[in-house]
Amino acid sequence: MGEAKRWKEERRMGEVEISGIFFQSNPDELFLFLQRVLVVRCERRSGWDALTYVGYSSFFDPMDEYGLIPKYNIIYTREDDKTVSLRVERIKDS
């Protein structure tokens, strides 16, 4: 079974909002995240300089069948101006 299919079957769905500033100044870091996400929706919220991505990924916890899609933050660690790690944390109460 492919990875993306497993994420979908396990309902590992999440939502991440990416600021326009981050998108413009850190495309490589954004790519590190998005290459591990099966994006099912991307939208630009009116009035916000941000993109919201919804998708399936091993980064996300399995969710209830009829629950709300949980929201997550992406956290990058850098050393010597290079990204060395990426982790995703669920936002509490989402």
Describe how the helices and strands are arranged:
Blueprint: H1 3-9, E1 13-19, H2 20-25, H3 27-34, E2 38-44, E3 50-56, E4 71-79, E5 82-90
Parallel strand pairs: 1-4
Antiparallel strand pairs: 1-3, 2-3, 4-5
Structural features:
94 residues, alpha+beta, 5-stranded mixed beta sheet, 22% helix, globular
Describe it.
This protein has 94 residues and is an alpha+beta fold. The protein has one domain. 22% of the residues lie in helices and 41% in strands. A five-stranded mixed sheet has the order 2-3-1-4-5. Strand 2 (38-44) and strand 3 form a beta hairpin. The longest helix is centred in the N-terminal third of the chain and has 8 residues, at 27-34.
Task: Write a brief caption for the model.
The chain has helices at about 5-10, 20-25, 25-35, and strands spanning about 15-20, 40-45, 50-55, 70-80, 80-90.
The figure for the number of domains is 1
Figure out the total of helices.
3
User: Largest sheet, order of strands side by side?
Assistant: 2-3-1-4-5
Helix/strand class: alpha+beta
Shape annotation: globular
Work out the number of β strands: 5
Unreliable runs, pLDDT <50, ≥5 residues?
none
**Radius of gyration, whole Å:** 14 Å
Distance between the amino and carboxyl termini: 29 Å
DSSP strand content: 35-45%
Describe the largest sheet.
5 strands, mixed
Note the run of SSEs as H and E: HEHHEEEE
Integer average pLDDT: 88
Helix content: 10-25%
